[in-house]
Amino acid sequence: MSKLMWSIIISMLFSCGSPQLVKEQQYSRENLKQKTFNYFWDLADTIHHQIPDRYPTLTFSSIAATGFGLSTYLTGIENKYISRSEGAQRVYKTLDALWMLPQGPDSIGMSGHKGFFYHFLNLDNAKRYKK
Prior knowledge:
With about 130 residues, the protein is mainly alpha-helical. The protein has four helices and four strands, in the order ααβααβββ. Helix 2 packs across helix 3.
């Protein structure tokens, strides 16, 4: 190998910094379960009960996240984070809101078509997010 090649290899070796250690947060299984439940319970929209697709950016909800929220309420009841009555009330309100959302073939102003919901819905009115 030439001197130039050795110089490049040596400078590459010494220019590589040591890996940064990421401080790990220690969570117990119980703590993680509680935090996960709280995400779905606390972030649900108070009118249509949709769950935001992302956090902390609250741009739109996701019908998938809302479905996960419905199953998470069962976990909340089982672990006594909420009462059975609170869970039942939230599930009822969520399903009632979905039932009342507009359905139709139009590309705007609707929440779904033929019983299927668009994946992303606006947080303010639960209608289709963008096109």
